[in-house]
Amino acid sequence: MNNSEILFLYDAKMTNPNGDPDEENRPRMDYERDINLVSDLRLKRYIRDYLEMQGERIFVTKLEDKSVKPEKIIDKLKKDLGKKKLTKEEILKELIDVRLFGATMPIERDTKTFTGPVQFNWGYSLNKVELIEAAITSHFSTDSKNQQGAMGRDYRVKYSFIAFSGVISGNRAKHTLLTEDDVNKLDKAMVKSIPLLSTRSKVGQYPRLYMRVEYKDNETILGDMRSTIELIEKNESPRDISEIKIDVTKLVKHLEDNKDRIESIYYFADPNLEIYQEGEEKEFKDIFNSFNLVEVR
């Protein structure tokens, strides 16, 4: 398998992209710059949940809606497969999230650590983000003496346009038995998982642009593509996808300069996102038409 690098852009409107338990579940923030942050674990959770919803076996999951020790997951896998023992290869072939992201897991009397070929940096917003705070009241009392209902706080971002960067290592893929089919499933999960797995605090998030640049070898890494994207705000404090646009002029040059290293670009582009190159609005497929493009559906 060859290396790939990922650029993923999505937005969040009146929602909480990633609550911080150390901050009363407020959205994670870099307060010095008013930048919204989202951990890689939050993104991986979306992907795992989507893949599980599609019938894939997942290692980092719950059993009967309860958190359990890793040994319990392996014991259930043995039971489902009708085996008393499982080899490393058998476990890897069954658990797609371990093939993607790696894990530390019990294998018989040993503990084995797999470093995942797919890794993401933390996501951050390309715009400055404002928070909104509101009081919420539950109709259920907290105990027999309190008949008024529980009070709490609800924290959300007004609008956040979030960018993630990721890599897929062809060398590490060999050790977790990652397949091309697995990577294709990852592509779909990146595009579909967030809106399909919305909860009360997460509804209002949509993928806007996904690019997986696949290289011709397992040595090439060109670097984080987020620095080549310019976010242009139509209004001083945007609140909707219609109030922003992105300029990909630097990204196009970055990729064109390394075109001989690129095999294909797998992509999803939301038609609601305005994309500009050298001051002119264009469709994604027209901007990158010199590359072998594969649309993710």
Task: Characterise this structure.
The chain is of the alpha+beta class. The protein has one domain (4-60, 118-295). Helix content is 25%, strand content 34%. It contains 8 helices and 18 strands. The protein has helices at 40-53, 70-81, 88-94, 96-101, 170-176, 180-196, 249-256, 284-287, and strands at residues 4-15, 19-20, 26-27, 29-30, 35-38, 102-107, 110-115, 118-120, 123-125, 131-137, 151-168, 205-215, 230-233, 244-247, 262-269, 274-277, 280-281, 293-295. The strands form 4 sheets. Strands 1, 4, 5, 8, 9, 10, 11, 12, 15 and 18 form a 10-stranded mixed beta sheet that branches. Strands 13-14-16-17 form a 4-stranded mixed beta sheet. It comes from Thermohalobacter berrensis. This is Type I-B CRISPR-associated protein Cas7/Csh2.
Sum up the structure in keywords:
10-stranded mixed beta sheet; 25% helix; 4-stranded mixed beta sheet; Cas7_Csh2/Csh2; alpha+beta; 297 residues; 18 strands; CRISPR-assoc_prot_Cas7/Csh2; Type I-B CRISPR-associated protein Cas7/Csh2; globular
Quick take:
By secondary structure, this protein is of the alpha+beta class.
| Overall pLDDT metric | 93
Shape by Cα distribution: globular
What is the percent of helical residues?
25-40%
> How many DSSP H or I helices?
8
Please give the radius of gyration in angstroms.
Answer: 21 Å
Main sheet, how many strands, which sense, barrel?
A: 10 strands, mixed
Count of discrete domains: 1
Q: What quaternary form is this?
A: single chain
Structural class: alpha+beta
The string of secondary-structure elements, in order, is EEEEEHHHHEEEEEEHHEEEHEEEHE
Pfam families: Cas_Cas7
Organism: Thermohalobacter berrensis
Protein name: Type I-B CRISPR-associated protein Cas7/Csh2
InterPro entries: Cas7_Csh2/Csh2, CRISPR-assoc_prot_Cas7/Csh2
